[in-house]
Amino acid sequence: MSLPSIQRVFLQSVAESDPEGHFVDVENIQTYYKIAIPQYHQTLLQNQQFSDEPHKPVVLCLHHFLGNQYTWRLQMQPLANATGCHVISYDRVGFGFTERPIQWEEGKNPYTQIAAVDFAVQLLIKLGYGAKKVILIGSSAGSAISCSIAIKYPHLVHSLILIGSTLRSEDQGPPPVACHILGSAPGRLFLKAALYQYLPLMRIYHNVDAIPGWETVVKPSYRNAILEYRIIENCGHLPQDEKPQEVIDLVVDFLGRLDV
User: Fold this and answer.
1) Given this model, what pLDDT does residue 245 score?
2) DSSP symbol at 208
3) From CA 37, how far away is CA 35, in angstroms rounded?
4) Phi and psi for 104 in degrees, rounded to 5?
5) Taking the mean position of all CA atoms in its chain, how far away is CA 220?
6) Which of 31, 87, 97, 229 is the most exposed place for a label (fewest CB within 10 A)?
7) How far is the C-alpha of 10 from the C-alpha of 99, rounded, in Å?
8) What's the CA gap between 227 and 97, in Å, rounded?
9) pTM of the predicted model, to two decimals?
10) Which residues contact 18 (CB under 8 A, 6 or more apart)?
11) What is the model's pLDDT at position 219?
12) CA-based angle 169:173:178, to the nearest 5?
């Protein structure tokens, strides 16, 4: 049996100061993570009762470049309590207390964004959440990883919340025909507003009043999901640190309207 690396031992020893943090091996990389569960789940666990709600999604928080899971310290427990979901954050490869691999197989560089996508999914599986839908909350570069997860694994994703997002064209799927217009923020906002205003196209119907559930089911379905753009005033690139309560309020309100 081989001895653990000096790097692993060092990271574990430094992380011991925080009893809420844990380590798990994901793709042979020692990964540091935290989980917040709703307060009433904690009470059930103390009474040795099953705490997880199978219909609830799980929330996964992805931090920014040059950051770590600490940036979610003020959001995790309030979000868990408000939504009834388990909330997970972790140090992405290369950051925080997660191991920094120094060698890997050809074509399997763990520091790429492509690798980060599968890594996040494997983390959820390792922690026992592989069968659940995922609410992805990404900050800055974490938003790009969140979008890439949604593109590659759309069946896993419940919803996306992107904070101070830094997205490239490849993070948003194949480019549309009018990519030069829609690639800009004003263009995307115009498209969202236009689609919400005019979909579905009324002229293709004879009498919408004859369609069961037109206003409550059919019409909202053509408008797809809830798409919102919010501005937090007097705030920089990391509102979860600078305006934590506003972030909590916006996220809880958004998820509440998605019946979470």
Assistant:
1) 96
2) G
3) 6
4) -160, 165
5) 24
6) 229
7) 10
8) 35
9) 0.77
10) none
11) 74
12) 65
Domains of the chain: 6-174+242-256 (3.40.50.1820)
List of residues 6+ apart from 251 with CB closer than 8 A = 75, 79, 137, 161
Q: CB-based burial of residue 169 (10 Å sphere; 0-12 exposed, 13-18 middle, 19+ buried)?
A: exposed
What is the per-residue DSSP string for 30-74? EEEEEEE--HHHHHHHHTT-----TTS-EEEEEPPTT--GGGGTT
Alpha-carbon distance of 25 to 87, in angstroms, equals 19
The residue type at 12: Q
Residue 95, SS3 per DSSP: coil
pLDDT of residue 200: 67
Task: Give alpha helix (H) positions in the chain.
Answer: 6-15, 39-46, 76-83, 113-126, 141-152, 179-182, 185-198, 219-222, 239-242, 244-256
**Paired tokens of 223:** 């408008």
Low-confidence residues in the chain, pLDDT < 70: 1-4, 45, 47-52, 167-201, 222-226
196: nearest Cα among 174, 225, 216, 218: 225
Matching residue, tokens 């997205």: 167
How many whole angstroms separate alpha carbon 207 and alpha carbon 181? Answer: 35
The reported pLDDT for the residue numbered 228 is 79
Task: Tell me the Ramachandran region of residue 78: left when phi exceeds 0, alpha when psi lies from -120 to 50, beta otherwise.
Answer: alpha
Rounded CA-CA distance 170/176 in Å is: 11
Quote the tokens at residue 235: 């705030």
Check residue 96 and give its pLDDT: 93
Tokens of 82: 């408000």
